[in-house]
Each structure stands twice: as structure tokens, then as C-alpha cells.
Amino acid sequence: MNAIYPTRRAVAAVALGMPVALLLALATPGLWFVGTAWSVAVLILLAVDTGLGMRNLRLTVDADLPETLGVGRSVLARFVISFPSAAPPSLEVELEGNGRLSIAPRRQMLPVEGPVASARFQLDPLRRGEGLLENVWLRWTGPLGLAHIQHKHRMGRKL
């Protein structure tokens, strides 16, 4: 599952054009269309940014996880996220599990070094039974910083 939505920068860029367009329209009524042109230009840049950021959807997530866990014993889980091309400069990673596992930190912002980012999470079993790591949520921005691309990588891994 993927989701795309504008960043604060994109919303601010559209909002910035509104008062400028209003002032231009009041000063020179013939320039009323500048505000619309500004908003359309930002939307076109948002679409370009989305397209460039979507190239990273062919990423891979490799997990180094233990087969078993013991109650009261913490374990470090390591995830390596590899991008096929033009990796983003940073990546937000969140690990989602069921109620039998405590995950710390829940979410982290990582630098991407080359085409690879590495995340570490501490897993603490809260009680006996199967712990489930359900999804790894990834979020990054396009190269222009106008679009957030959010990707859900299904794990479905029982511990």
C-alpha cells in the first residue's frame, strides 16, 4: 500500500501565492490570473516530485530477526532498506507489531547512506505467545521536498 500527500512546503507554496495574487489583482486587475498560474505551477511541481520520489518503490527490506524470544529478554532487530536508484537523503521508519511485543523506538528518522538505510529496533516480549511483526512503514519526500511518499512493507513475521 502506498500513499502520497503534500508536505508542509507544498502547502506553504500554494498559500504564499494567494496574498501575492490578491495584491496583484487589486493593483493591476489584468494580472488576476497570476495566482491561479502560481497554484497550477506548484501542483505541476508536486506531480513531478511525486514521480521522481516514486522511483524508490522498488526498494527491498531485509530483516535480521531471531526465531524465538523469551519474556524478559530484549532482542535487537535490524532492518536494512535498499533503494534501487536515487535514494532519498533521509527516511522515516516505523515498525508495527501486535500487542505481545514492545517495540522501541516505535518510529525513527534515518539518514540514507548511498542506496542503503539501516534501522534497529529493540523488541521486548510482554507475555508468552506468538509475537507478530506486521508491517514496516516507510516515508520519504521527493527530491523537491513537496511530496511525501509513504510505503507499507508487509512483514507478517511471527516470533
Q: How would the global form be characterised?
A: elongated
| Mean pLDDT across every amino acid position | 87
Low-confidence blocks of residues: none
What share of the residues lie within helices? 25-40%
CA radius of gyration: 21 Å
N-to-C terminal Cα separation, in Å?
Answer: 24 Å
Q: Can you write the helix and strand succession as a string?
A: EHHEEEEEEEE
Count of extended strands: 9
Q: DSSP strand (E) fraction?
A: 35-45%
Order of neighbouring strands in the sheet with most strands: 1-9-8-4-6
Write up this protein:
- The chain is of the alpha+beta class and 159 residues long.
- It has helices at residues 8-27, 33-54; strands at residues 2-6, 60-64, 75-82, 90-97, 101-104, 107-111, 116-125, 132-141, 147-158.
- It has a five-stranded antiparallel beta sheet. It has a four-stranded antiparallel beta sheet with strand order 2-3-7-5, with no helix packed on it.
- A hairpin with a 5-residue loop joins strand 8 (132-141) and strand 9 (147-158).
- 23% of the residues are buried.
- The mean pLDDT is 87.
Q: What tags apply to this protein structure?
A:
159 residues, alpha+beta, five-stranded antiparallel β-sheet, 9 strands, 42% strand, elongated
Structure at a glance:
Helices cover 26% and strands 42% of the residues. By secondary structure, the chain is α+β, with helices and mostly antiparallel strands.
Give the helix/strand layout.
Layout: E1 2-6, H1 8-27, H2 33-54, E2 60-64, E3 75-82, E4 90-97, E5 101-104, E6 107-111, E7 116-125, E8 132-141, E9 147-158
Helix pairs in contact: 1-2
